Amino acid sequence: MISNTENFAVIMLYPVSMDLGRMYQENMHPLRGMAPLEGPTRIYIMDLRNGNVISGISTDPGISFSTHHVNAWEEGDEIVIDYASNMWSNMPNYLNFKNIMSEDKGNIVPTFLMKRARINIKTKEVKVHDWKNALEIPYINYLEFPNINTNYNGIRNRFVYGWIGIDNQRQGLVKKDLEDSRNDKVWSVPFHYPGEPFFVANTEGKDEDDGIVLSIVYDGTFKKSYILLLDGKTFDVSVYYY
Question: Per residue, what are the HEC states of 109-153?
């Protein structure tokens, strides 16, 4: 995974590899070919101004594996990164067809969890924190496929939009306020299964969340897909097209 700030690129190398031999045995399924390696996650910081690389950065158990980075930015001597943490061992069977078709409601907590890492480029120390959850919504920080206003790539952002899947029957979309989690919002309809959300900024807007959130949703009742547009500010439904 690679993120970039205004002046740095942040490269995380996780202790996981692809076993090509096993992939042949698993019908070339890449996730089924994942295998662990010895050692911790290694972090490299590249200065985009001169190409210098900072290595030897210590890691924290909170950075064992990540499926997606949200954004990164600079704060003094620190680089801050928000990312979706996960255990690599959860990935090979995540899309197993029997698991998807199961009606077992026992899995009430997803395996992925949003984290914030602070990397000090001088001391090479890494500290990992959980996102705040003032409303105590059980699943609000278990989002995946994070998306932001791309005008804020590399600089500090406030809002994150993402997908949540408590189990294969209960899914939804969320708007996360990283400055005041009392404003967190959720969209969910029973038996409606949204895909990855995309934020489209209003070209004439001034606020970070001025725009629409677009997702393709499958309606399990009518067995049809539709395009959902949510207001980026209120997270109310603006329109949907079957």
Answer: CCCCEEEEEEEECCCCCEEEEECCCCCCCCCCCCEEEEECCHHHC
Residue 225 located in a structural domain: yes
Encoded tokens for 93: 């069977």
Nearest to 133 by CA among 114, 155, 161: 114
Range of the domain at 217: 147-242
Distance of CA 236 to the CA centre of its chain: 22
- Which residues fall within 8 angstroms of residue 2, CB to CB, at 6 or more apart? 9, 10, 11, 12, 69
pLDDT profile of the chain (242 residues), mean per 10: 94 86 78 80 94 89 83 97 81 64 56 90 93 92 94 97 82 96 95 95 95 95 95 92 78
Q: Residue 29: how many CA atoms within 13 Å on its side-chain side?
A: 11
Residues 114 and 160 both lie in one domain: no
For residue 189, the one-letter residue type is V
Residue 87 and residue 65: Cα distance in Å, rounded?
6
Residue 31 in 3-state DSSP?
helix
Cβ 228 vs Cβ 217: under 8 Å: yes
